[in-house]
């Protein structure tokens, strides 16, 4: 077992190297900061996380958020936002929110994942084509406007390297899935470029060393420079990193579970991610999440325990210290080709097309989330997307919940249709001066307006009101408030007010808020038979008057 984890950790470490460098540069930081993040994630997420197979590190999913923070607040702002995100993730894990995050609607996840893919692709056009652009705008539309105005500066050697990079990755994958295709491609491209540059004096394309000074020394702990003002301005960004990072992490863990027929602890996984994101910025690292590609590489190469993740971190540390300087020979166009391929895989356009056949509300949530992610930023996309999803849920839930009058058929007979309220299927005789209303579905704020008709129908001749709740799974404060209004009206009209078929969950809610005591426990019945028995004297009086 240990040797399998050791071998897998070595391979994953090699695979993670080019990705760490690429994601670091694409995020607006220096290459070694991406590697440092992989090292920190490999240690803390593996030791403290809740998945046996998860390999964590910087991922393409967070590039857009991270690069936006760097552009607006600088490196110091990024480190503070990363730490804040770690605190959020740690808190969510401790409060056991991990199992809830997976309920974020699928159209939202696909919307901002596809949007991020388009944004990553857009950000790499400059290096992919070797354009001579000094400062690249942050927003989507200005970027493309500048690209079209800079077509005259395309470096066709850079385009060739980018395209060859993508083709070589595909070739290596086809030869053998176990070959670290990204690293093998980078080595081939870098060696050829090195020979052309230093043996034939052909500096055709820009390399990492032309843009960055790579620090391959052991990372030192540094002060993050917290202030109240900085924390306040970066609070939203930290929350966005935590939410989206948690979604990506738990999705990766779920994929691993599906392959291995195993299960992870989502809350413990969030704790591990939280601690890693609190530690990473202390060493100059960027935010991390679970990485699906590296996790699958770990599984495919025999990784079975968190030891593989720790070994992958140690491998990266040795590479950083002893071979880090070699990364300066990697062409920027080569990294751009890798990121373009990653963005294509992230886009999952087939899933997007299938979503367009879903209900209109899901399509609307997907389109809005996607558009806001691309045009504005992920923070706005998540907020608006969740609001739309909540509105859609409320609308759908209200459509399956309704309130009907039991005597609308014109008779005073109520047929027992469900065994939930009684074991009998007999017809029940309802007195003419007793109103029975049955609530179907959740009784919450989304159906509050449907209760208005009940209040209007209660007249002075009504001597009894029965609210039948056999099919009410839960009730919220608005539903209880509506019952209180009806109860007050029944007191004014001097009519009896009773509840029928109340399940334990609803009863607990009524007791907790004091409504059960207000109407009297003797007026809450387990089934309709007992409730109608209360009105037997009313029926007898009615008969004698006739």
Largest sheet: 5 strands, mixed
The percent range for helix content is 55-70%
What share of residues are in beta strands? 5-15%
Mean pLDDT: 85
Number of strands: 9
User: By helix and strand content, what is the structural category?
Assistant: alpha/beta
Our count of helices gives 23
Summarize the helices and strands and which ones pair or pack.
Elements: H1 2-26, H2 31-48, E1 56-57, H3 63-94, H4 98-101, H5 106-128, H6 140-149, H7 156-175, H8 181-198, H9 208-211, H10 228-260, H11 266-279, E2 289-290, H12 292-300, H13 307-323, H14 332-347, H15 349-355, H16 360-375, H17 378-400, E3 402-405, E4 413-415, E5 427-429, E6 434-440, H18 452-457, E7 464-471, H19 477-492, E8 496-500, H20 504-512, H21 515-519, E9 524-525, H22 528-533, H23 536-545
Parallel strand pairs: 6-7, 7-8, 8-9
Antiparallel strand pairs: 1-2, 3-6, 4-5
Helix pairs in contact: 1-2, 1-8, 1-12, 1-13, 1-14, 2-11, 2-13, 3-10, 3-11, 5-6, 5-14, 5-15, 5-16, 7-8, 7-14, 10-11, 10-12, 16-17
Write structural notes for this entry.
This protein is an alpha/beta fold. It folds into two domains: 2-348, no CATH class; 402-545, STAS domain (Transcription Regulator spoIIAA, 2-Layer Sandwich), CATH 3.30.750. The chain is 62% helix and 7% strand. It has 23 helices and nine strands. The strands form three sheets. The protein has a five-stranded mixed sheet. It has a two-stranded antiparallel sheet with strand order 1-2. Strand 7, helix 19 (477-492) and strand 8 form a beta-alpha-beta unit. Helix 2 (31-48) packs antiparallel against helix 13 (307-323), helix 5 packs parallel to helix 16 (360-375) and helix 10 packs across helix 11.
